[in-house]
Amino acid sequence: MSQGIGVVGLYVRDQDEAIEFYVDKLGFRVHTDARNGDYRWLTVQHPGQPSFQLGLFAPQAPLLDAATVQMMRELVAKQFQNFNPCANVRDVYTDMSDQRANSGLWEVGSRLSVIRFKQV
């Protein structure tokens, strides 16, 4: 029997754009892409972690009511407002690590080196 976390879900604005990013840019592969009416269950896997799936889900019915769908779409749209792509994330991490000791305004979290700014 397999133990551990098998699927972690993320809400995404557009599932096709999410496939393009995770598969074409990060090297994941589509594990499951199943539709039931308007609902779409989409998961991807990294080749190095075949027992783990990342769910790429659009906020939609039937799992959420209309008001919650609208609220979740607005939240998903806002999640990357302060995201600044860079050519070399290691250089950015090093530069910001040097600044962190003095400012305390940001944190680095996750193995993908996602930078999250704290509100001050």
From TrEMBL:
GO terms assigned for molecular function: dioxygenase activity
A Pfam family hit: Glyoxalase
TM stretches of this protein: none
InterPro entries with a match to the protein in the record: Glyas_Bleomycin-R_OHBP_Dase, Glyas_Fos-R_dOase_dom
S-adenosyl-L-methionine found in the keyword field: no
Record keywords, A-Z: Dioxygenase, Oxidoreductase
Ranges in coiled-coil conformation: none
Residue ranges of every copy of the Glyoxalase/fosfomycin resistance/dioxygenase domain listed in the record: 5-67
UniProt keyword Transmembrane, yes or no: no
Name recorded for this polypeptide: Glyoxalase/bleomycin resistance protein/dioxygenase superfamily protein
Species name: Nitrosomonas oligotropha
Native organism taxonomy: Bacteria, Pseudomonadati, Pseudomonadota, Betaproteobacteria, Nitrosomonadales
